[in-house]
Amino acid sequence: MIIDFHTHAFPKKISDCAIATLSSSCGNTAPQHTGTIESLVEKIKNCGCDKAVVLNIATNPKQQKNVNNYAISLLSNPDVVPFGSIHPDSDEAIDELYRLKEAGIKGIKLHPNYQNFFVDEERLFPIYEKAANLGLITVFHAGVDIGIPDPLYCTPQRLINILPIFKDTPVVAAHMGGYLLWKDVLNTLAGSKIYLDTSYSYSHLPPKWAKEIIKKHGADKILFGSDMPWSNTCDEIRFIESIGLSEVEMQQIFYKNATDILKI
Ligand SMILES: [Zn+2]
After folding, report:
1. pLDDT, tens digit (0-9, with 9 covering 90-100), for 133-188
2. What is the 3-state secondary structure (H, E, C) of 172-237?
3. Domain ranges of the chain
């Protein structure tokens, strides 16, 4: 079994535009699916992957409700686990967390670069606390973002600063804890109480460093992810298989840790 913990899809009427805009801001990366949920599911299944966690992001406060309506609409699809999103500038952020929880959503994605906040800013703490109290998993984009590289909104040290707020509710740092900040991840974040997803590692993260981070951090806190459509699930699976991990570690990474925290 394989669960891809980091994917994206868009509502049909905006998918073409969303894919084109995001692709061009990231240097014309070739998207690996058309943008719709049907295309995403077809592609991950072709790679032998069973389920995808679909991470949605509200890039302005006005979008928050629509983005979450889309996430909630995906709950009826057995092949995906949709996450909602909160915008820190929304007056309805806390109410929206309750709405997501009541609908059956399991987590939220926050993207500091696209939502313009540093992860350890105090104004975010009530959102973190409420998400944690409701048992919602919080996923952060971590490290450099190719589309918005500066400033560094989410570094390993800033993540360390906020981890105690979440108590026992899982927190996930995408891109192995900090895209392009991997030495910092190894020295600062590895071994702490946070999950790291492996998304967008293929041909970006040196396999030797991936192995060092996983060994120091513990394979029981690593989640397989691709970042579809910005990377391909098949390539990312092959990357994890190439690192030189044990069968047990690979099972943890490919699905056991995910089924554990998603309670599926
Ligand atoms: Zn992503």
Report:
1. 999 999 999 999 988 899 999 999 999 999 999 999 999 999 999 999 999 999 99
2. EECHHHCECCHHHHHHHHCCCCCEEECCCCCCCCCHHHHHHHHHHHCHHHEECCCCECCCCHHHHH
3. 3-262
The whole-number pLDDT of residue 226 equals: 98
For residue 56, how far is its CA from the centre of ligand 1 (angstroms)? 9
CA of 149 to the centre of ligand 1 (A): 14
pLDDT reported for residue 161: 98
Ligand 1 mean position to 244 CA, how many Å? Answer: 25
Distance 119 CA to ligand 1 centre (A): 17
Determine the distance separating the centroid of ligand 1 and the alpha carbon of 134, expressed in angstroms: 24
- Report CA(226)–ligand 1 centroid distance (Å): 8
**Average pLDDT along the chain:** 96
CATH homologous superfamily of 3-262 equals Metal-dependent hydrolases (3.20.20.140)
